[in-house]
């Protein structure tokens, strides 16, 4: 086996720390071909669809890919920003603004963003950081609650990259942050800020992305993590147990997924006389198709058509200043002693090289 040539390794060189923020992914552009390419990569991941590959490959090629991309085109069109896909845009600014924070205190930390599926790829981000001289890495999947199909898949992809490398750097991983104080506080501040500019409803709906019930039964802790997150945010907001509901959205296929389903909860609330509700999705730190189209458009229609009157959706954290501050706290905590140069000489060397790298990146 031939390993990837690593020209960036120099014996005795000063150390940069590379931080990679990883989100799910998105089509590169508004076209059926781009959506099809994205779905093919995404739905070919065995952690995402856990049925025998020979069966699923037939379904994917003959049923999903020929028809679903066209049906998704208008949905993506309804949320697309002038800069591109909302998820890619927000993730880019999260990395950029986090870099700015570290530039103020830790000049040898380099931050990049990547997508598990699509572009920029995880390998592209890793190679760029290696070329900048990073030999310590923090991999940060932007999924607060661990799930096999999300964080687990990011691990798979990263290890696949390392298998091709002659030099393996020091590595740390963020497994989850669903109970981290900085994340919980950022969510609570974000919701309060939204309340201050809108009506406070009598019920807050926590809608998390769902997973198949089979995955939960097989040992995936994701649903438990979701309930923990909702409880901690509710406590921070001083909500009673009757003041919020937890549910799960984005069911795909015919298999049973973790319940209750968001669409059923919202319909039931409208039919039972609730006129005003507010929905927040703590599993998404960046707005995307699931928050901007599925919740803000589809589920809003469900609520209003069943007797509801006012439907509010709390935006994702995106690149809000309190979320960037929380990111910096989570990352710094994980980096630990990596933020301390080995010597004064190395510190000066790192600063000089960081200025050069930063100028070239700008």
Automatic annotation (TrEMBL):
Gene3D superfamilies associated with the record: 3.40.50.1400
EC number of the protein: 4.98.1.1
This protein's UniProt keywords: Cytoplasm, Heme biosynthesis, Iron, Lyase, Metal-binding, Porphyrin biosynthesis
Enzyme class: lyase
Keyword Lyase on entry: yes
Pathway(s) where this gene product acts: Porphyrin-containing compound metabolism; protoheme biosynthesis; protoheme from protoporphyrin-IX: step 1/1
Keyword Lyase carried by entry: yes
Main location: cytoplasm
UniProt: Fe(2+) binding residues: 209, 290
A molecular function GO annotation: metal ion binding
Localization (cell): Cytoplasm
Gene Ontology annotations of biological process type: heme biosynthetic process
Coiled coil stretches, renumbered: none
Segments passing through the bilayer: none
PROSITE patterns: FERROCHELATASE
CDD domains given in the database record: Ferrochelatase_C, Ferrochelatase_N
UniProt-listed InterPro entries: Ferrochelatase, Ferrochelatase_AS, Ferrochelatase_C, Ferrochelatase_N
Functional summary from the UniProt entry: Catalyzes the ferrous insertion into protoporphyrin IX.
Family to which this protein belongs: Belongs to the ferrochelatase family.
Protein name in the entry: Ferrochelatase
Protein's organism: Candidatus Ichthyocystis hellenicum
Gene: hemH
């Amino acid at each position: 086996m031939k390993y990837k040539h690593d020209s960036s390794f120099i014996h005795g060189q000063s150390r940069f720390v590379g931080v990679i923020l990883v989100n799910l992914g998105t089509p590169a552009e508004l076209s059926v071909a781009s959506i099809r390419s994205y779905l093919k990569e995404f739905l070919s991941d065995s952690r995402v669809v856990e049925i025998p590959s020979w069966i699923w490959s037939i379904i994917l090629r003959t049923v999903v890919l020929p028809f679903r991309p066209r049906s998704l085109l208008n949905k993506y069109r309804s949320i697309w920003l002038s800069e591109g896909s909302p998820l890619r845009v927000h993730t880019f600014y999260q990395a950029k603004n986090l870099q700015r924070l570290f530039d103020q205190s830790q000049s040898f930390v380099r931050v990049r963003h990547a997508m598990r599926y699509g572009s920029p790829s995880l390998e592209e981000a890793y190679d760029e950081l290696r070329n900048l001289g990073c030999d310590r890495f923090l991999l940060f999947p932007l999924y607060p609650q661990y799930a096999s199909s999300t964080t687990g898949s990011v691990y798979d992809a990263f290890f696949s990259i390392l298998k091709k490398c002659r030099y393996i750097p020091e590595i740390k991983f963020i497994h989850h942050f669903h109970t981290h104080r900085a994340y919980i506080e950022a969510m609570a501040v974000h919701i309060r800020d939204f309340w201050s500019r809108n009506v406070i409803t009598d019920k807050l709906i926590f809608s998390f992305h769902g997973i198949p019930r089979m995955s939960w039964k097989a040992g995936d802790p994701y649903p438990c993590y979701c309930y923990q997150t909702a409880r901690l945010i509710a406590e921070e907001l001083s909500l009673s147990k009757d003041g919020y509901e937890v549910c799960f959205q984005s069911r795909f296929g015919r298999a049973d997924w973790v319940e209750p389903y968001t669409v059923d909860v919202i319909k039931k609330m409208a039919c039972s006389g609730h006129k005003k509700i507010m929905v927040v999705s703590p599993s998404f730190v960046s707005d995307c198709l699931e928050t901007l189209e599925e919740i803000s458009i589809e589920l809003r229609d469900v609520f209003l058509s069943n007797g509801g009157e006012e439907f509010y959706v709390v935006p994702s954290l995106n690149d809000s200043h309190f979320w960037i501050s929380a990111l910096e706290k989570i990352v710094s905590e994980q980096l630990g002693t990596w933020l301390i140069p080995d010597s004064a000489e190395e510190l000066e060397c790192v600063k000089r090289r960081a200025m050069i790298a930063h100028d070239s990146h700008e």
